[in-house]
Automatic annotation (TrEMBL):
InterPro entries: AB_hydrolase_fold, Peptidase_S28, Ser_carbopepase_S28_SKS. Belongs to the peptidase S28 family. It holds the Pfam family Peptidase_S28. One of its GO terms (molecular function) is serine-type exopeptidase activity. Keywords: Glycoprotein, Hydrolase, Protease, Signal. This is Serine protease EDA2.
Length: 344
């Protein structure tokens, strides 16, 4: 905790500013010139997309422009729009199946907890809230990263065939979410989040620290028509923050939004882009304003950072496979517009 006080967006921006100055000076030394300034353009996706926009806002003298792709510039305490977007992106048929699975899991947990967790390969998640969060996130990635068919096709088929829906979802979770997508179950384990050793899993703890202090984005279940379990509520998140980081840790979302401006950010020469199916887009700037164009890229698999991250896939693959690339015109159009703005 003593070291984590340095983990903040503000500190990250200052680190970038100092690095940028140092690197510019080292270039000038190398080329035997004095006081020269290269043009610096900043890029970022997701949290780094927010940093990209905030860097241009706070250090306009150090950069000529910014691309803020799926940039979560608005800190949100109870982020119910996240789950609502998952339902919208899923479409009526898939959404209904996901809601049925949530109901079945909620009921089954009361009678058969140990076996149920084992079925999903998540026996290590002692805290029920962690288990529910793990299951909710498993569905989310399909829409967030532009692979809705990988989730919806097998589940809707299972429903039509009268198969066991919990078993069908467990298969998807183990094979796709953990297997193909590569998510580790321990990411959701609060015991793991309390581990202060520095290793490749440390980023889980670090991101949660920023969640618990600066931005929240508590992905709570909406009061009605929810896709995720209603047990994923504000209390679950606040309990996690307290359990992992101790007393007195609380997300100061108002402070964050006052400091940066949220979606009323008053920067210039910042390009905002978002994918239509991405649950994070509601924390981004979705409308254009003078000097800050904003584009929503609309397609069946337009997820998080779609303009920067990969070629949209028309099949269930997380690899960037040129043969299965559907490249909707919408993505290409925005990429051309981005290039035009950067050229300007």
């Amino acid at each position: 905790m003593e070291n984590l006080k340095y983990l903040s967006s503000k500190q990250a921006l200052f680190d970038l500013a100092v690095f940028r100055q140092w690197y510019q000076e080292s270039l000038n030394l190398k080329r035997n010139r004095t006081g020269a300034e290269n043009a610096w353009f900043v890029f970022g996706v997701s949290y780094s997309g927010a940093l990209s926009a905030w860097f241009r806002l706070k250090f306009p003298h150090l950069t000529c422009g910014s691309l803020a792709s799926s940039a979560v510039v608005l800190a949100v305490y109870n982020y119910t729009d996240y789950d609502k977007q998952v339902g919208e992106s899923a479409g009526p048929e898939c959404k209904a199946v996901l809601q049925e699975i949530t109901e079945l899991v909620d009921r089954s947990l009361e009678t058969n907890k140990k076996e149920l967790k084992k079925q999903f390969g998540a026996a290590e998640l002692d805290i029920d809230g962690d288990f529910f969060y793990f299951l909710a996130d498993a569905a989310v990635v399909a829409f967030q990263y532009g692979h809705p068919d990988a989730l919806c096709t097998p589940l809707v088929d299972a429903k039509k065939a009268g198969m066991d829906l919990v078993a069908a979802y467990a298969k998807y979770v183990k094979e796709y979410f953990v297997g193909t997508f590569g998510v580790s179950v321990e990411t959701y384990n609060q015991k793991h989040l309390k581990n202060t050793a520095v290793n490749e899993g440390s980023s889980d703890r670090l991101w949660w620290f920023q969640v618990c202090t600066e931005v929240a984005y508590f992905q709570v279940a909406p009061s009605n028509d929810t896709v995720r379990s209603s047990k994923i509520d504000t209390k679950y998140h606040l309990d996690l923050c307290k359990n992992v980081f101790g007393e007195g840790i609380y997300p100061e979302v108002d402070v964050t939004n006052i400091y940066y401006g949220g979606t009323n950010i008053a920067g210039s020469k910042i390009i905002f882009t978002n994918g239509s199916q991405d649950p994070w887009r509601h924390a981004s700037k979705q409308t254009s304003s003078p000097g800050m164009p904003s584009y929503i890229i609309t397609c069946h698999n337009c997820g998080h950072g779609i303009d920067m991250r990969e070629c949209p896939q028309s099949v269930s693959s997380i690899e960037d496979n040129a043969q299965s690339c559907s490249i909707p015109d919408a993505v290409n159009k925005v990429r051309h517009k981005m290039t035009e703005h950067i050229d300007l």
